[in-house]
Design brief:
The chain is α+β, with helices and mostly antiparallel strands. It is built from three helices and two strands; from the N terminus they run αββαα. 14% of the residues are buried.
Length: 88
């Protein structure tokens, strides 16, 4: 099997509590991450340890995973720092 590791990092100029508030609301990732079309919980546990979710990525993300990861992290930074969402 051919495995690849992609490492991307960002700095967000907000308190960690504010960052984790957005990250913990994983089922709404599609509201601020432009490359995610849909998120859905697929386990009885909806949040925290044991929660399992399925993300449906746009074809753009599927074609350019690394660029998509940069886009998602940039969107996360914008969401946390400004509070803006790209869709409700």
């Amino acid at each position: 099997m051919n495995c690849q590791t992609v490492l991307v990092s960002i700095e967000i100029q907000k308190p960690s509590e504010q960052v984790w508030e957005v990250i913990a609301d994983f089922n709404n990732m599609h509201t601020w991450a432009p490359s995610i079309e849909k998120t859905e919980s697929i386990s009885p546990v909806k949040r925290g340890v044991g929660a399992v979710r399925r993300n449906t990525a746009t074809s753009q993300l599927q074609a350019k995973l690394t660029a998509g990861l940069h886009e998602i992290l940039g969107a996360l930074k914008t969401r946390v720092e400004t509070g803006n969402r790209i869709r409700e």
